[in-house]
Specification:
By secondary structure, the protein is mostly helical. About 75% of the residues lie in helices and about 0% in strands. The protein is built from 14 helices and 2 strands. Strand 1 and strand 2 form a beta hairpin. Helix 1 runs antiparallel to helix 2.
Amino acid sequence: MNSLSPTAGKRTNRVMADTSLVSFLEDRRRPVESALRDSVDTLAADIPGSLAAAIRDAVMSGGKRIRPLLLVAGYEEAGAASTDPVYDLAASVELIHAYSLMHDDLPCMDDAPLRRGSPTAHILHGAPTAAVAGALLIPWAATRAYDASVSLGRSRDQARGIAAHLLEAAGAGGMIGGQALDLLGEGGSLDEGELAELHVLKTGALLGAALELGAMAAGAGRALLAALGSFGRDIGLAFQVTDDVLDATATADVLGKQPSDADRDKSTYVALMGVEGARAHARGLLERALAALDTAGLTAFRLRQLARFIVQRSR
């Protein structure tokens, strides 16, 4: 029987791993999209049609769905088998992400005309409608997170804790705090520490919380929650560094969004370190994130794959 050379064997293993990740993403993404559609349809039945249309356009316009996929991976890493309610919980994180994009794109913020290759909510529906529609997603996400957690067998107190953790990651100590620092930093030159603080809050907090929420819903202990939170925050920062590289090296047509952070005179990792320096920094953050899993004794094969995908993606 012929044996593979070491080089060919590594290549085969990489192809198999890539195929495995693609299968995982496809298998989990379909129920995530279904849960998002159900959440939007349920909310739409109780609000004016103009707001429902803006929410539907913003939430169902595609995207990588990294946050809900991380939540599902965190749930499964804690030893639980995914069922419909975990996808409802995963959708609640994406609702918060969608609200943040709707508000980020407003004329008073980034004044972005394009998101995911399509006109942004304020272009299609007007700024007042986009602002209110985005705000509606915050309590709705918390409600869905609570209901899903109860359906997954958590107590009402635990479910309230899960919903509260989601809102904390989205609030002043997380995403909103990072957005405030982002706006204050426009036109300035932030150093590496200031830039890291900004993006750990703006991007890393919700990505880290997604993993923690999944594990909390599965009844995980503190050690696992701490390891996943540390991993998620580093991957969240690596995600932003990679975004900065892509903003500097890919076209708007490829990325599907306008304007870039450089166009808005914001500090970026590329401006601070150069393209190659930023790429090296993202790889370093990836290794630090993986080391957090190693320290906790977690094999976490799927999380390691997702982490590499986040850093090595092309859009």
